Design the sequence.
């Protein structure tokens, strides 16, 4: 099975938040809801920056706890969510060690990063990747991202038992 993953060369990330905004626009989320977050892991927001969304884990806890099957892992490793099947129970939020899925109370539904699966299926890249002005955020297979020097651990990012697939080019 192929496992898709994000790769971030965060030593060059400028913290512009363009990836965050592109994701918000793609998913039409309220201004205060972010499925992709960009944060500085040093004091006073001076950088370096780290940007993360759903990690499309190898063993996603959100999938195994979903009582309706609304959250599933595709053959390419992308975790997707069907809002038509979701009952808004929030089990996926409680199970995710990265607190990724977001509950929209006024709509009683969960939203989440789906790695812009429809765009990938059409041969395009996720909105966040396309929007990155310095092109330090990419998407490829986990194997290719690791071959490019990507590692699982990074300052500001903790690896959990779910085996997140986001990879980072180490800061040297």
Sequence:
């Amino acid at each position: 099975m192929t496992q898709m993953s994000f790769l971030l060369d965060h030593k060059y990330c400028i913290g512009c938040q363009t990836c965050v905004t592109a994701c918000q626009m793609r998913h039409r989320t309220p201004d205060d809801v972010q499925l992709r977050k960009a944060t500085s892991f040093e004091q006073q927001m001076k950088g370096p920056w780290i940007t993360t969304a759903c990690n499309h884990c190898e063993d996603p806890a959100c999938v195994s706890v979903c009582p309706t099957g609304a959250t599933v892992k595709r053959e390419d490793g992308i975790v997707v969510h069907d809002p038509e099947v979701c009952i808004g129970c929030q089990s996926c939020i409680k199970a995710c060690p990265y607190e990724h899925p977001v509950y929209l109370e006024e709509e009683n539904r969960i939203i989440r990063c789906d790695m812009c699966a429809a765009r990938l299926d059409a041969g395009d890249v996720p909105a966040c990747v396309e929007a990155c002005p310095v092109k330090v955020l990419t998407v490829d297979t986990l194997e290719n991202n690791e071959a490019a020097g990507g590692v699982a651990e990074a300052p500001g990012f903790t690896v959990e038992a779910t085996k997140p697939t986001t990879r980072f080019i180490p800061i040297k």
Notes: The first strand starts at residue 4 and ends at 8. The radius of gyration is 15 Å. The CA atoms of residues 61 and 167 lie 19 Å apart.
